[in-house]
# Entry
Amino acid sequence: MKSNHKYSFIILAAILLLCFLANISLGSIHIPLTEIIESIFGTTENETSQLIITKYRLPKALTAILVGSGLGTSGLLMQTLFRNPLAGPFVLGISSGASLGVALVILGSGLFGGLFATALISKWSIVIAASLGSFLVLLAVLAVSHRVRDTMAILIIGLMFGSITAAVVSVLSYFSSAEQLQQYIFWGFGSLSNLSWNELLIFFGIYSVGIILTVTSIKGLNSLLLGDNYAKSLGLNLKQSRLIIILSTSLIAGTITAFAGPIAFIGLAIPHLTRQIFKTSNHKILLPAVFLFGAIVMLICDSISQVPGSDYTLPINAITALVGAPVVIWLLVRQRKMMF
Amino acid sequence: MEDKFQNLILKAENLSIGYKAKKADKVVASNINFELEKGQLIGLVGPNGIGKSTLLRTLIKVQPALSGSILLNNKELKNISTSGLAKQLSIVLTEQLISKNLSVYELVALGRHPYTNWVGNLTDKDITIVNTSLNQVNISDLKYKKCYELSDGQFQKVMIARALAQDTDVIVLDEPTTHLDMYHKAYILKLLKKLTEETGKTILFSSHEIDLAIQLCDTMLVMKENEVVCDQPCRLISNGVFKTLFPKDLISFDDTTGSFRVTK
# Structure
Protein backbone atom coordinates (compact mmCIF):
# COMPACT_ATOMS: atom_id res chain seq x y z
CA MET A 1 0.00 0.00 0.00
CA LYS A 2 2.53 2.56 1.13
CA SER A 3 5.21 1.80 -1.46
CA ASN A 4 2.49 2.20 -4.09
CA HIS A 5 2.08 5.81 -3.07
CA LYS A 6 5.82 6.29 -3.02
CA TYR A 7 5.98 5.37 -6.72
CA SER A 8 3.09 7.72 -7.49
CA PHE A 9 4.96 10.56 -5.83
CA ILE A 10 8.16 9.85 -7.74
CA ILE A 11 6.20 9.82 -11.00
CA LEU A 12 4.40 13.04 -10.09
CA ALA A 13 7.67 14.75 -9.20
CA ALA A 14 9.16 13.64 -12.52
CA ILE A 15 6.14 14.98 -14.42
CA LEU A 16 6.46 18.26 -12.52
CA LEU A 17 10.11 18.61 -13.57
CA LEU A 18 9.17 17.80 -17.16
CA CYS A 19 6.36 20.37 -17.20
CA PHE A 20 8.66 22.92 -15.63
CA LEU A 21 11.27 22.52 -18.38
CA ALA A 22 8.63 22.39 -21.11
CA ASN A 23 7.02 25.55 -19.72
CA ILE A 24 10.32 27.40 -19.90
CA SER A 25 11.12 26.05 -23.32
CA LEU A 26 7.77 26.94 -24.92
CA GLY A 27 6.63 30.45 -25.73
CA SER A 28 6.75 32.95 -28.52
CA ILE A 29 10.31 31.77 -29.15
CA HIS A 30 11.17 28.13 -28.66
CA ILE A 31 14.33 27.65 -26.61
CA PRO A 32 15.92 24.17 -26.70
CA LEU A 33 16.49 22.22 -23.50
CA THR A 34 20.30 22.36 -23.55
CA GLU A 35 20.17 26.12 -23.76
CA ILE A 36 17.79 26.31 -20.78
CA ILE A 37 20.15 24.34 -18.60
CA GLU A 38 23.13 26.37 -19.78
CA SER A 39 21.27 29.62 -19.10
CA ILE A 40 20.33 28.61 -15.61
CA PHE A 41 23.93 27.77 -14.79
CA GLY A 42 25.16 30.86 -16.66
CA THR A 43 27.38 29.01 -19.12
CA THR A 44 25.52 29.89 -22.31
CA GLU A 45 26.85 32.23 -25.01
CA ASN A 46 23.44 33.13 -26.36
CA GLU A 47 22.71 36.26 -24.34
CA THR A 48 19.22 36.85 -25.72
CA SER A 49 17.89 33.52 -24.61
CA GLN A 50 19.62 33.82 -21.26
CA LEU A 51 17.91 37.16 -20.75
CA ILE A 52 14.54 35.74 -21.73
CA ILE A 53 14.96 32.82 -19.38
CA THR A 54 16.34 34.46 -16.26
CA LYS A 55 14.34 37.68 -16.50
CA TYR A 56 11.11 36.36 -17.79
CA ARG A 57 10.41 32.67 -18.14
CA LEU A 58 12.08 31.28 -15.01
CA PRO A 59 10.26 33.62 -12.60
CA LYS A 60 7.02 32.97 -14.47
CA ALA A 61 7.41 29.18 -14.20
CA LEU A 62 8.25 29.46 -10.51
CA THR A 63 5.21 31.69 -9.99
CA ALA A 64 3.08 29.06 -11.72
CA ILE A 65 4.37 26.41 -9.32
CA LEU A 66 3.67 28.56 -6.27
CA VAL A 67 0.21 29.56 -7.51
CA GLY A 68 -0.85 26.04 -8.51
CA SER A 69 0.42 24.27 -5.41
CA GLY A 70 -0.86 27.03 -3.14
CA LEU A 71 -4.35 27.15 -4.60
CA GLY A 72 -4.63 23.35 -4.55
CA THR A 73 -3.53 23.27 -0.92
CA SER A 74 -5.90 25.98 0.23
CA GLY A 75 -8.74 24.34 -1.69
CA LEU A 76 -8.11 21.08 0.15
CA LEU A 77 -8.03 22.89 3.50
CA MET A 78 -11.33 24.62 2.83
CA GLN A 79 -13.06 21.45 1.61
CA THR A 80 -12.10 19.55 4.75
CA LEU A 81 -12.82 22.41 7.13
CA PHE A 82 -16.20 23.25 5.61
CA ARG A 83 -17.04 19.56 4.95
CA ASN A 84 -18.20 20.69 1.57
CA PRO A 85 -16.86 19.35 -1.70
CA LEU A 86 -17.76 22.62 -3.40
CA ALA A 87 -15.69 24.78 -1.09
CA GLY A 88 -12.61 26.44 -2.51
CA PRO A 89 -10.13 28.99 -1.20
CA PHE A 90 -12.45 31.72 -2.41
CA VAL A 91 -15.66 30.78 -0.65
CA LEU A 92 -14.40 32.59 2.42
CA GLY A 93 -14.54 35.73 0.37
CA ILE A 94 -10.77 35.96 0.16
CA SER A 95 -10.76 36.77 -3.53
CA SER A 96 -13.78 39.05 -3.17
CA GLY A 97 -11.88 41.00 -0.55
CA ALA A 98 -8.87 41.24 -2.82
CA SER A 99 -11.04 42.27 -5.77
CA LEU A 100 -12.67 44.98 -3.69
CA GLY A 101 -9.27 46.31 -2.63
CA VAL A 102 -8.03 46.39 -6.21
CA ALA A 103 -11.28 47.87 -7.50
CA LEU A 104 -11.07 50.68 -4.95
CA VAL A 105 -7.52 51.47 -6.06
CA ILE A 106 -8.02 51.23 -9.81
CA LEU A 107 -11.61 52.39 -10.20
CA GLY A 108 -11.66 54.71 -7.23
CA SER A 109 -8.43 56.49 -8.17
CA GLY A 110 -10.40 58.69 -10.55
CA LEU A 111 -11.96 60.32 -7.53
CA PHE A 112 -8.58 61.63 -6.38
CA GLY A 113 -7.77 62.81 -9.89
CA GLY A 114 -4.63 64.14 -11.53
CA LEU A 115 -1.11 63.26 -10.59
CA PHE A 116 -2.06 61.43 -7.42
CA ALA A 117 -4.08 58.96 -9.46
CA THR A 118 -1.14 57.86 -11.58
CA ALA A 119 1.01 57.43 -8.50
CA LEU A 120 -1.70 55.36 -6.89
CA ILE A 121 -1.99 52.82 -9.68
CA SER A 122 1.45 51.34 -9.38
CA LYS A 123 2.09 47.64 -9.22
CA TRP A 124 2.73 47.67 -5.50
CA SER A 125 -0.37 49.61 -4.61
CA ILE A 126 -2.43 46.89 -6.30
CA VAL A 127 -0.58 44.17 -4.42
CA ILE A 128 -1.05 45.98 -1.13
CA ALA A 129 -4.71 46.71 -1.83
CA ALA A 130 -5.39 43.08 -2.71
CA SER A 131 -3.58 41.76 0.38
CA LEU A 132 -5.30 44.29 2.59
CA GLY A 133 -8.69 43.48 1.09
CA SER A 134 -8.37 39.73 1.58
CA PHE A 135 -6.93 40.19 5.05
CA LEU A 136 -9.79 42.44 6.16
CA VAL A 137 -12.39 40.04 4.82
CA LEU A 138 -10.56 37.25 6.62
CA LEU A 139 -10.67 39.19 9.88
CA ALA A 140 -14.40 39.70 9.40
CA VAL A 141 -14.88 35.98 8.72
CA LEU A 142 -12.78 35.10 11.74
CA ALA A 143 -14.84 37.41 13.94
CA VAL A 144 -18.02 35.85 12.64
CA SER A 145 -16.72 32.28 12.96
CA HIS A 146 -15.96 33.05 16.58
CA ARG A 147 -19.63 33.68 17.18
CA VAL A 148 -21.17 31.25 14.72
CA ARG A 149 -20.19 27.68 15.50
CA ASP A 150 -21.74 26.19 12.40
CA THR A 151 -19.24 25.90 9.55
CA MET A 152 -22.04 25.87 7.00
CA ALA A 153 -23.09 29.34 8.17
CA ILE A 154 -19.53 30.61 7.74
CA LEU A 155 -19.57 29.28 4.19
CA ILE A 156 -22.74 31.20 3.39
CA ILE A 157 -21.40 34.32 5.07
CA GLY A 158 -18.34 34.03 2.82
CA LEU A 159 -20.62 33.89 -0.23
CA MET A 160 -22.51 36.94 1.01
CA PHE A 161 -19.25 38.86 1.32
CA GLY A 162 -18.67 37.94 -2.31
CA SER A 163 -22.05 39.38 -3.34
CA ILE A 164 -21.47 42.61 -1.43
CA THR A 165 -18.07 43.02 -3.08
CA ALA A 166 -19.49 42.38 -6.52
CA ALA A 167 -22.15 45.02 -5.90
CA VAL A 168 -19.62 47.61 -4.76
CA VAL A 169 -17.45 46.84 -7.78
CA SER A 170 -20.42 47.36 -10.14
CA VAL A 171 -21.22 50.69 -8.55
CA LEU A 172 -17.58 51.76 -8.84
CA SER A 173 -17.33 50.64 -12.44
CA TYR A 174 -20.46 52.62 -13.34
CA PHE A 175 -18.61 55.79 -12.38
CA SER A 176 -15.25 54.84 -13.90
CA SER A 177 -13.64 55.66 -17.19
CA ALA A 178 -13.24 53.00 -19.88
CA GLU A 179 -9.50 53.00 -19.35
CA GLN A 180 -9.78 52.27 -15.64
CA LEU A 181 -12.36 49.62 -16.29
CA GLN A 182 -10.04 47.94 -18.75
CA GLN A 183 -7.21 47.96 -16.24
CA TYR A 184 -9.42 46.35 -13.62
CA ILE A 185 -10.62 43.71 -16.06
CA PHE A 186 -7.02 42.92 -17.00
CA TRP A 187 -6.19 42.37 -13.33
CA GLY A 188 -9.19 40.04 -13.18
CA PHE A 189 -7.75 37.97 -16.04
CA GLY A 190 -4.93 36.91 -13.77
CA SER A 191 -1.30 36.94 -14.76
CA LEU A 192 1.74 34.92 -13.79
CA SER A 193 4.24 36.88 -15.78
CA ASN A 194 4.65 40.23 -14.06
CA LEU A 195 6.78 39.23 -11.10
CA SER A 196 10.35 40.38 -10.61
CA TRP A 197 12.74 38.26 -8.56
CA ASN A 198 12.27 40.56 -5.56
CA GLU A 199 8.51 40.26 -5.70
CA LEU A 200 8.83 36.52 -6.11
CA LEU A 201 10.93 36.37 -2.95
CA ILE A 202 8.28 38.18 -0.88
CA PHE A 203 5.59 35.99 -2.44
CA PHE A 204 7.56 32.87 -1.54
CA GLY A 205 8.15 34.07 2.03
CA ILE A 206 4.47 34.58 2.90
CA TYR A 207 3.46 31.46 0.98
CA SER A 208 5.98 29.38 2.98
CA VAL A 209 4.51 30.52 6.29
CA GLY A 210 1.09 29.36 5.07
CA ILE A 211 2.43 26.01 3.89
CA ILE A 212 4.27 25.38 7.18
CA LEU A 213 1.09 26.13 9.14
CA THR A 214 -0.75 23.70 6.86
CA VAL A 215 1.75 20.92 7.46
CA THR A 216 1.34 21.31 11.22
CA SER A 217 -2.43 20.88 10.75
CA ILE A 218 -2.27 17.50 8.96
CA LYS A 219 -3.17 15.49 12.05
CA GLY A 220 -6.05 17.79 12.94
CA LEU A 221 -7.34 17.73 9.37
CA ASN A 222 -7.47 13.94 9.47
CA SER A 223 -9.46 13.88 12.69
CA LEU A 224 -11.80 16.52 11.26
CA LEU A 225 -12.76 13.94 8.61
CA LEU A 226 -14.76 12.19 11.35
CA GLY A 227 -16.74 15.32 12.26
CA ASP A 228 -16.36 17.93 14.98
CA ASN A 229 -17.51 15.79 17.92
CA TYR A 230 -15.26 12.87 17.06
CA ALA A 231 -12.33 15.22 16.42
CA LYS A 232 -12.83 16.74 19.85
CA SER A 233 -13.09 13.29 21.45
CA LEU A 234 -9.69 12.54 19.93
CA GLY A 235 -8.23 15.46 21.86
CA LEU A 236 -8.26 18.07 19.09
CA ASN A 237 -8.54 21.70 20.12
CA LEU A 238 -11.25 22.62 17.62
CA LYS A 239 -11.11 26.40 17.94
CA GLN A 240 -7.37 26.57 17.60
CA SER A 241 -7.18 24.17 14.65
CA ARG A 242 -9.95 26.01 12.81
CA LEU A 243 -8.13 29.29 13.34
CA ILE A 244 -4.83 27.92 12.04
CA ILE A 245 -6.49 26.40 8.98
CA ILE A 246 -8.33 29.62 8.09
CA LEU A 247 -5.21 31.67 8.73
CA SER A 248 -2.99 29.54 6.49
CA THR A 249 -5.59 29.55 3.71
CA SER A 250 -5.85 33.29 3.75
CA LEU A 251 -2.09 33.72 3.79
CA ILE A 252 -1.66 31.41 0.80
CA ALA A 253 -4.71 32.38 -1.25
CA GLY A 254 -4.43 36.04 -0.25
CA THR A 255 -0.86 36.46 -1.51
CA ILE A 256 -1.61 34.49 -4.65
CA THR A 257 -4.54 36.77 -5.48
CA ALA A 258 -2.46 39.80 -4.65
CA PHE A 259 0.39 38.86 -6.97
CA ALA A 260 -1.30 36.85 -9.72
CA GLY A 261 -4.93 37.97 -9.66
CA PRO A 262 -8.02 35.90 -8.92
CA ILE A 263 -7.31 32.53 -10.54
CA ALA A 264 -10.37 30.35 -10.84
CA PHE A 265 -11.08 26.65 -10.46
CA ILE A 266 -7.61 25.37 -9.54
CA GLY A 267 -8.46 25.43 -5.84
CA LEU A 268 -11.73 23.60 -6.44
CA ALA A 269 -10.74 21.09 -9.12
CA ILE A 270 -7.27 19.97 -8.01
CA PRO A 271 -8.28 18.36 -4.68
CA HIS A 272 -11.05 16.42 -6.46
CA LEU A 273 -8.74 15.23 -9.23
CA THR A 274 -6.20 14.14 -6.63
CA ARG A 275 -8.80 12.20 -4.62
CA GLN A 276 -9.76 10.41 -7.84
CA ILE A 277 -6.22 9.28 -8.48
CA PHE A 278 -5.04 8.54 -4.95
CA LYS A 279 -8.43 7.30 -3.74
CA THR A 280 -8.09 8.46 -0.18
CA SER A 281 -8.96 11.38 2.09
CA ASN A 282 -5.90 10.85 4.28
CA HIS A 283 -4.21 14.25 4.35
CA LYS A 284 -0.76 12.78 4.86
CA ILE A 285 -1.03 11.49 1.29
CA LEU A 286 -3.45 14.06 -0.15
CA LEU A 287 -1.57 17.17 0.87
CA PRO A 288 1.73 16.47 -0.93
CA ALA A 289 -0.21 15.02 -3.86
CA VAL A 290 -2.41 18.12 -4.19
CA PHE A 291 0.72 20.23 -3.93
CA LEU A 292 2.44 18.47 -6.84
CA PHE A 293 -0.74 18.18 -8.89
CA GLY A 294 -1.61 21.84 -8.54
CA ALA A 295 1.86 22.88 -9.68
CA ILE A 296 1.72 20.55 -12.69
CA VAL A 297 -1.73 21.68 -13.84
CA MET A 298 -0.83 25.35 -13.41
CA LEU A 299 2.35 24.92 -15.49
CA ILE A 300 0.34 23.20 -18.22
CA CYS A 301 -2.34 25.90 -18.16
CA ASP A 302 0.33 28.56 -18.40
CA SER A 303 2.02 26.79 -21.32
CA ILE A 304 -1.33 26.69 -23.14
CA SER A 305 -2.04 30.35 -22.42
CA GLN A 306 1.24 31.31 -24.07
CA VAL A 307 0.00 29.75 -27.33
CA PRO A 308 3.41 28.29 -28.26
CA GLY A 309 4.89 29.72 -31.44
CA SER A 310 2.67 32.80 -31.48
CA ASP A 311 2.81 36.27 -29.97
CA TYR A 312 -0.53 35.94 -28.20
CA THR A 313 -0.94 35.45 -24.47
CA LEU A 314 -4.42 34.37 -23.45
CA PRO A 315 -5.77 35.29 -20.00
CA ILE A 316 -4.64 32.56 -17.59
CA ASN A 317 -7.92 32.76 -15.71
CA ALA A 318 -9.84 31.73 -18.82
CA ILE A 319 -7.58 28.73 -19.39
CA THR A 320 -7.86 27.46 -15.80
CA ALA A 321 -11.65 27.76 -15.99
CA LEU A 322 -11.72 26.01 -19.37
CA VAL A 323 -9.66 23.17 -17.92
CA GLY A 324 -11.16 23.15 -14.43
CA ALA A 325 -14.89 23.47 -15.01
CA PRO A 326 -15.23 20.45 -17.35
CA VAL A 327 -13.18 18.38 -14.90
CA VAL A 328 -15.61 19.16 -12.09
CA ILE A 329 -18.62 18.43 -14.34
CA TRP A 330 -17.05 15.19 -15.51
CA LEU A 331 -16.40 14.06 -11.94
CA LEU A 332 -19.99 14.85 -10.96
CA VAL A 333 -21.51 13.05 -13.92
CA ARG A 334 -19.31 10.02 -13.52
CA GLN A 335 -19.85 9.64 -9.83
CA ARG A 336 -23.23 11.29 -9.36
CA LYS A 337 -22.07 12.27 -5.92
CA MET A 338 -18.76 13.94 -5.25
CA MET A 339 -16.47 11.64 -3.36
CA PHE A 340 -15.17 13.39 -0.39
CA MET B 1 -17.50 -0.29 50.84
CA GLU B 2 -13.79 0.29 50.22
CA ASP B 3 -13.89 -2.19 47.37
CA LYS B 4 -16.82 -0.48 45.75
CA PHE B 5 -15.03 2.85 45.80
CA GLN B 6 -12.07 1.24 44.06
CA ASN B 7 -14.26 -0.09 41.32
CA LEU B 8 -16.09 3.13 40.68
CA ILE B 9 -15.49 4.59 37.20
CA LEU B 10 -18.31 7.00 36.42
CA LYS B 11 -20.52 8.76 38.91
CA ALA B 12 -23.28 11.32 38.55
CA GLU B 13 -24.41 13.41 41.50
CA ASN B 14 -27.54 15.58 41.48
CA LEU B 15 -26.93 15.96 37.78
CA SER B 16 -29.24 18.18 35.82
CA ILE B 17 -29.02 18.09 32.03
CA GLY B 18 -30.46 20.21 29.25
CA TYR B 19 -29.70 23.28 27.20
CA LYS B 20 -28.49 26.62 28.40
CA ALA B 21 -30.55 29.57 27.25
CA LYS B 22 -30.46 33.27 27.98
CA LYS B 23 -33.77 33.55 29.78
CA ALA B 24 -34.36 30.17 31.39
CA ASP B 25 -32.41 26.96 30.93
CA LYS B 26 -34.34 24.20 29.20
CA VAL B 27 -34.07 21.32 31.64
CA VAL B 28 -34.39 17.91 30.01
CA ALA B 29 -33.88 15.83 33.13
CA SER B 30 -32.73 16.59 36.64
CA ASN B 31 -31.80 14.95 39.91
CA ILE B 32 -29.86 12.18 38.18
CA ASN B 33 -27.76 10.00 40.46
CA PHE B 34 -25.89 6.85 39.55
CA GLU B 35 -22.63 5.02 40.08
CA LEU B 36 -21.13 2.82 37.40
CA GLU B 37 -18.53 0.16 38.10
CA LYS B 38 -15.46 -0.78 36.08
CA GLY B 39 -15.60 -3.60 33.53
CA GLN B 40 -19.36 -3.61 33.19
CA LEU B 41 -21.70 -3.42 30.25
CA ILE B 42 -24.28 -0.75 30.98
CA GLY B 43 -27.40 -0.18 28.92
CA LEU B 44 -29.24 3.15 28.96
CA VAL B 45 -32.90 2.73 28.01
CA GLY B 46 -36.01 4.85 28.04
CA PRO B 47 -38.75 6.10 25.73
CA ASN B 48 -38.13 8.45 22.82
CA GLY B 49 -37.46 12.06 23.77
CA ILE B 50 -36.78 11.36 27.44
CA GLY B 51 -33.21 12.67 27.11
CA LYS B 52 -30.99 9.62 26.61
CA SER B 53 -28.89 11.36 23.97
CA THR B 54 -28.71 14.54 26.05
CA LEU B 55 -27.47 12.50 29.01
CA LEU B 56 -24.83 10.76 26.88
CA ARG B 57 -23.77 14.05 25.28
CA THR B 58 -23.33 15.51 28.76
CA LEU B 59 -21.34 12.48 29.93
CA ILE B 60 -18.95 12.74 26.96
CA LYS B 61 -18.64 16.51 27.46
CA VAL B 62 -20.13 17.54 24.15
CA GLN B 63 -22.48 19.78 26.11
CA PRO B 64 -22.09 21.10 29.67
CA ALA B 65 -24.20 19.92 32.59
CA LEU B 66 -26.68 22.48 33.91
CA SER B 67 -25.81 21.63 37.49
CA GLY B 68 -24.52 18.80 39.62
CA SER B 69 -21.34 16.89 38.99
CA ILE B 70 -19.96 14.04 36.92
CA LEU B 71 -16.94 12.17 38.22
CA LEU B 72 -14.79 10.16 35.82
CA ASN B 73 -12.10 8.14 37.60
CA ASN B 74 -12.77 10.30 40.69
CA LYS B 75 -12.07 13.52 38.80
CA GLU B 76 -14.57 16.22 37.94
CA LEU B 77 -15.38 15.86 34.23
CA LYS B 78 -15.38 19.61 33.66
CA ASN B 79 -11.83 19.85 34.99
CA ILE B 80 -10.45 17.21 32.63
CA SER B 81 -8.73 18.69 29.55
CA THR B 82 -9.79 17.73 26.02
CA SER B 83 -6.54 15.86 25.43
CA GLY B 84 -6.74 14.19 28.86
CA LEU B 85 -10.31 13.08 28.25
CA ALA B 86 -9.29 11.61 24.88
CA LYS B 87 -7.20 9.04 26.77
CA GLN B 88 -9.99 8.12 29.19
CA LEU B 89 -13.15 8.12 27.15
CA SER B 90 -13.93 7.22 23.55
CA ILE B 91 -17.20 7.50 21.69
CA VAL B 92 -19.30 5.96 18.93
CA LEU B 93 -21.98 8.36 17.74
CA THR B 94 -24.96 8.11 15.41
CA GLU B 95 -23.77 11.03 13.29
CA GLN B 96 -22.41 10.32 9.82
CA LEU B 97 -18.73 10.74 9.13
CA ILE B 98 -17.69 13.67 6.96
CA SER B 99 -15.70 11.37 4.73
CA LYS B 100 -15.97 7.64 4.23
CA ASN B 101 -13.17 7.70 1.68
CA LEU B 102 -10.79 6.10 4.16
CA SER B 103 -9.76 2.48 4.47
CA VAL B 104 -10.94 0.57 7.53
CA TYR B 105 -7.35 0.44 8.75
CA GLU B 106 -6.87 4.21 8.35
CA LEU B 107 -10.10 4.93 10.20
CA VAL B 108 -9.27 2.64 13.12
CA ALA B 109 -5.76 4.11 13.23
CA LEU B 110 -7.29 7.57 13.78
CA GLY B 111 -8.19 6.22 17.22
CA ARG B 112 -4.48 6.42 18.08
CA HIS B 113 -4.38 10.21 17.65
CA PRO B 114 -4.21 11.05 21.37
CA TYR B 115 -0.96 9.09 21.53
CA THR B 116 0.80 9.85 18.23
CA ASN B 117 3.25 12.64 17.43
CA TRP B 118 2.41 16.00 15.77
CA VAL B 119 2.01 14.57 12.28
CA GLY B 120 0.21 11.42 13.47
CA ASN B 121 2.79 8.76 12.58
CA LEU B 122 2.07 5.31 14.01
CA THR B 123 4.73 3.59 16.08
CA ASP B 124 5.07 -0.22 16.18
CA LYS B 125 3.06 -0.19 19.40
CA ASP B 126 0.27 1.80 17.76
CA ILE B 127 0.16 -0.62 14.82
CA THR B 128 -0.07 -3.59 17.20
CA ILE B 129 -2.95 -1.96 19.07
CA VAL B 130 -4.80 -1.15 15.83
CA ASN B 131 -4.44 -4.75 14.65
CA THR B 132 -5.56 -6.08 18.04
CA SER B 133 -8.62 -3.83 17.93
CA LEU B 134 -9.47 -5.11 14.43
CA ASN B 135 -9.14 -8.68 15.69
CA GLN B 136 -11.28 -8.07 18.76
CA VAL B 137 -14.27 -7.14 16.63
CA ASN B 138 -13.46 -9.76 13.96
CA ILE B 139 -12.94 -7.40 11.03
CA SER B 140 -9.29 -8.07 10.17
CA ASP B 141 -10.39 -9.28 6.74
CA LEU B 142 -11.95 -5.87 6.02
CA LYS B 143 -8.71 -4.04 6.79
CA TYR B 144 -8.08 -2.64 3.30
CA LYS B 145 -11.71 -2.08 2.32
CA LYS B 146 -12.99 1.47 1.96
CA CYS B 147 -15.55 2.58 4.52
CA TYR B 148 -18.11 3.46 1.82
CA GLU B 149 -18.06 -0.18 0.65
CA LEU B 150 -19.23 -1.53 4.00
CA SER B 151 -22.71 -2.50 5.15
CA ASP B 152 -24.21 -0.71 8.17
CA GLY B 153 -23.39 -3.65 10.43
CA GLN B 154 -19.78 -3.87 9.27
CA PHE B 155 -19.36 -0.11 9.61
CA GLN B 156 -20.65 -0.14 13.17
CA LYS B 157 -18.00 -2.75 14.01
CA VAL B 158 -15.33 -0.53 12.45
CA MET B 159 -16.43 2.39 14.62
CA ILE B 160 -16.26 0.15 17.69
CA ALA B 161 -12.76 -0.95 16.69
CA ARG B 162 -11.77 2.71 16.37
CA ALA B 163 -13.02 3.38 19.90
CA LEU B 164 -11.10 0.34 21.16
CA ALA B 165 -7.91 1.56 19.50
CA GLN B 166 -8.22 4.78 21.47
CA ASP B 167 -7.43 2.59 24.50
CA THR B 168 -9.70 4.29 27.02
CA ASP B 169 -11.26 3.06 30.28
CA VAL B 170 -14.73 3.98 29.12
CA ILE B 171 -16.47 3.65 25.76
CA VAL B 172 -19.78 5.42 25.25
CA LEU B 173 -22.02 4.43 22.33
CA ASP B 174 -25.14 6.33 21.28
CA GLU B 175 -27.70 3.88 19.89
CA PRO B 176 -25.19 1.50 18.29
CA THR B 177 -27.96 -0.81 17.05
CA THR B 178 -30.14 1.55 15.02
CA HIS B 179 -30.48 0.68 11.32
CA LEU B 180 -29.36 -2.89 11.99
CA ASP B 181 -31.37 -6.08 11.49
CA MET B 182 -32.33 -8.28 14.41
CA TYR B 183 -29.31 -10.55 14.00
CA HIS B 184 -26.82 -7.70 13.87
CA LYS B 185 -28.46 -5.95 16.81
CA ALA B 186 -27.86 -9.03 18.91
CA TYR B 187 -24.41 -9.46 17.37
CA ILE B 188 -23.26 -5.93 18.25
CA LEU B 189 -24.57 -6.06 21.83
CA LYS B 190 -23.08 -9.52 22.39
CA LEU B 191 -19.80 -8.18 21.01
CA LEU B 192 -19.88 -5.32 23.50
CA LYS B 193 -20.50 -7.82 26.31
CA LYS B 194 -17.54 -9.90 25.15
CA LEU B 195 -15.33 -6.79 25.02
CA THR B 196 -16.10 -5.81 28.60
CA GLU B 197 -15.15 -9.30 29.71
CA GLU B 198 -11.97 -9.49 27.62
CA THR B 199 -10.63 -5.97 28.05
CA GLY B 200 -12.05 -4.88 31.41
CA LYS B 201 -13.31 -1.68 29.81
CA THR B 202 -16.57 -0.09 30.91
CA ILE B 203 -19.02 0.18 28.04
CA LEU B 204 -22.07 2.40 28.26
CA PHE B 205 -24.59 2.38 25.43
CA SER B 206 -28.06 3.76 24.82
CA SER B 207 -30.54 1.54 23.03
CA HIS B 208 -34.17 0.79 22.32
CA GLU B 209 -33.49 -2.97 22.46
CA ILE B 210 -34.72 -3.37 26.03
CA ASP B 211 -35.22 -7.14 25.66
CA LEU B 212 -31.65 -7.68 24.53
CA ALA B 213 -30.24 -5.26 27.09
CA ILE B 214 -32.01 -7.13 29.91
CA GLN B 215 -30.33 -10.34 28.81
CA LEU B 216 -26.83 -8.94 28.29
CA CYS B 217 -26.19 -5.94 30.55
CA ASP B 218 -24.59 -6.05 33.98
CA THR B 219 -26.30 -2.83 34.93
CA MET B 220 -29.06 -0.81 33.34
CA LEU B 221 -29.89 2.86 33.53
CA VAL B 222 -33.60 3.33 33.01
CA MET B 223 -34.69 6.89 32.25
CA LYS B 224 -38.27 7.60 33.25
CA GLU B 225 -40.39 10.71 33.43
CA ASN B 226 -39.26 11.80 36.89
CA GLU B 227 -36.30 9.59 37.77
CA VAL B 228 -33.33 7.66 36.52
CA VAL B 229 -33.07 4.16 37.99
CA CYS B 230 -29.73 2.38 38.02
CA ASP B 231 -29.64 -1.29 38.97
CA GLN B 232 -29.10 -4.89 37.81
CA PRO B 233 -31.65 -6.00 35.20
CA CYS B 234 -33.19 -8.78 37.37
CA ARG B 235 -33.77 -6.38 40.25
CA LEU B 236 -35.24 -3.80 37.91
CA ILE B 237 -37.71 -6.46 36.75
CA SER B 238 -38.68 -7.55 40.26
CA ASN B 239 -39.13 -3.92 41.28
CA GLY B 240 -41.50 -3.49 38.34
CA VAL B 241 -39.53 -0.64 36.78
CA PHE B 242 -40.26 -1.70 33.20
CA LYS B 243 -44.00 -2.04 33.81
CA THR B 244 -44.43 1.71 34.01
CA LEU B 245 -41.90 2.62 31.33
CA PHE B 246 -44.42 2.99 28.50
CA PRO B 247 -48.15 3.82 28.40
CA LYS B 248 -50.06 0.58 28.97
CA ASP B 249 -52.51 0.82 26.07
CA LEU B 250 -50.32 -0.95 23.49
CA ILE B 251 -47.57 -3.00 25.09
CA SER B 252 -47.02 -4.49 28.49
CA PHE B 253 -44.01 -6.01 30.18
CA ASP B 254 -43.98 -9.71 30.94
CA ASP B 255 -41.93 -10.51 34.07
CA THR B 256 -41.49 -14.21 33.32
CA THR B 257 -39.94 -13.77 29.87
CA GLY B 258 -38.36 -10.38 30.51
CA SER B 259 -39.78 -8.91 27.35
CA PHE B 260 -42.53 -6.65 26.07
CA ARG B 261 -45.71 -8.09 24.54
CA VAL B 262 -48.29 -6.43 22.38
CA THR B 263 -51.54 -6.15 24.32
CA LYS B 264 -54.30 -8.05 22.56
User: Anything to note?
Assistant: Chain A has one domain: 2-335. The mean pLDDT of chain A is 84. The interface with chain B takes residues 1, 80, 83, 215-216, 218-219, 222-227, 229-230, 232-237, 275, 279-282, 284, 339-340 of chain A (CB under 8 Å).
